[in-house]
Design brief:
70% helix; single chain; globular; mainly alpha; 183 residues
């Protein structure tokens, strides 16, 4: 049984990486991908912390090799590393209310960190507080803000993918891989 479970965990890891890669190639609105959700789930579900960090980073790196690398890639990867740490917070007493809060924080941090990197390194904005605010404002079209969507499509995607992935994971963990089952 232990060997089968470990084997299934490896398949689960590979599945998450493939979902992350494929999702970046199918047509989608800006930032409407499951990478934040995969990062949270990796932090939540894997006992091996190194694997938790490698899952989203491998997904991003492989797809970035095909899509193209850019000067602020470090900020994108840093964002996902922080999101994995946030996934660790879900390990104790998981609830969907906690998931909602952590997804919200994750989405907002991604926005803050990646737009800060653009401001700091691109030369497109003056290195002043006004320039930083201008960069954050010009970054909002990716989030299409409205009262309903808060941060727009990217945030909505983070919520949809997170709730879907966590529901499927929780369902599988309880129904398929529960210790009472003969798997």
């Amino acid at each position: 049984m232990k060997r089968n479970l470990l084997h299934n965990i490896e398949y689960f890891s590979i599945s998450l990486i493939l979902i992350g890669i494929i999702s970046r190639f199918i047509p989608h609105p800006p930032n409407f991908t499951p990478i934040i959700s995969i990062s949270l789930l990796a932090g939540y579900s894997f006992k091996n912390k190194l694997k938790s960090f490698l899952i989203p980073l491998i997904s991003m790196f492989i797809s970035d090799l095909l899509l193209g690398l850019h000067s602020t890639i470090w900020a994108v990867y840093l964002s996902f590393v922080i999101v994995v740490f946030l996934g660790f917070l879900l390990r104790n007493n998981f609830t969907y209310i906690k998931l909602f809060g952590i997804v919200s924080v994750s989405s907002f941090l991604f926005y803050l960190i990646t737009n800060f990197a653009v401001w700091a390194t691109s030369g497109m904005y003056p290195h002043t507080l006004a320039g930083l605010l201008q960069c954050y404002i010009f970054g909002l079209p990716f989030y299409k803000p409205s009262p309903i969507e808060m941060f727009g499509l990217a945030y909505l995607g983070d919520l949809i993918y997170s709730f879907t992935l966590f529901f499927v994971y929780e369902f599988a963990a309880k129904r398929i891989y529960a210790p009472n089952n003969n798997i």
